[in-house]
Amino acid sequence: MAISFKGPQYQKSVILFAIFFYLRYLVSYRDLEEIMAERGVKVDHATLNRWVVKYAPLLAGRAQVSKRVTAKSWRANETYIKVRGKWTYPYRAIDRDRQTLDFMLSERRHLPAARRIFFRKAIASNGPPDRVVIDKSGANLAGLQAVNVILKFTGDGPMMGFKAFHSAVATLAGIETAHMIRKGQSANENRSPFQVFARLAG
């Protein structure tokens, strides 16, 4: 079933373009407001934020279901970002080919419990692994991408810090989905990244 875009006064394609551009590139909502205006679409930054928070998790869920089969050797990393002035803890797993497996943002850093929840989620969507390496060095690609995400979240990049946990969860899910598409994890590689993203909406 397709994701419903009923209600907003803007066309589905306009909403998807705005969400994709925000998740894929280092822009703030105010920058995106200007970019959309240049394309003849007048939409304020608060509306753009609502679109991302509402639709990014739905699109991320569809991306998980439709992604290519991943390898059974996993590498997981843990890091931290601030949400409303408090530290929160993203977990991320990739396979040996650096394909994204799953991701999760936790409000608490109770490592054994958080890892159990995360791996239960990852196994549910990818099947059980043969091997898992927990990496805290940040030296691999997943770690480097996580650092880039942190810079965007904390205000050291164009994005400002999050004011609510649910918006952080939604945005992180969307950013990871954009990374998955960029890495060619979709079955529709003959399409452009935006076309792949838009097809997730059904």
From TrEMBL:
Keyword line? DNA recombination, DNA-binding, Transposition
> Where's the DDE domain?
72-140
Report the record's Gene Ontology biological process terms: DNA recombination; transposition
What the entry lists under InterPro entries is as follows:
DDE_dom, IS_Transposase, Transpos_IS6
Its Gene Ontology molecular function terms? DNA binding
Superkingdom of the organism of origin: Bacteria
Chaperone found in the keyword field? no
For this protein, the record's PANTHER family field holds:
BLL1675 PROTEIN
What's the protein here called? Transposase
- Species per Swiss-Prot/TrEMBL record: Paracoccus saliphilus
